[in-house]
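Recall the central idea of this unit: under ordinary conditions, the amino acid sequence of a chain determines the structure it adopts. In this exercise we apply that idea directly, starting from the sequence alone.
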Amino acid sequence: VATSFSEAFSKVMENLTWSSSNDIVATVDNGLITAISEGTTTISASIEKVSASLSVSVYSTGEVATFSILE
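Accordingly, the structure predicted from this sequence is:
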């Protein structure tokens, strides 16, 4: 049993399932999105019967980019 908000949040995070609809454009690992190439993808997170998603567009700037949706 979680005894604090941070413990409860950690348990939720451990059980989230992350996915990218197009790994050629961007990947996601524990909420950290890494841009790979230009294009659009949908990043999704789900746990039990609850899910959320967002559209991510990647444009080339010549630099590697990462983005955390948790911060």
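The first helix runs from residue 5 to 15.
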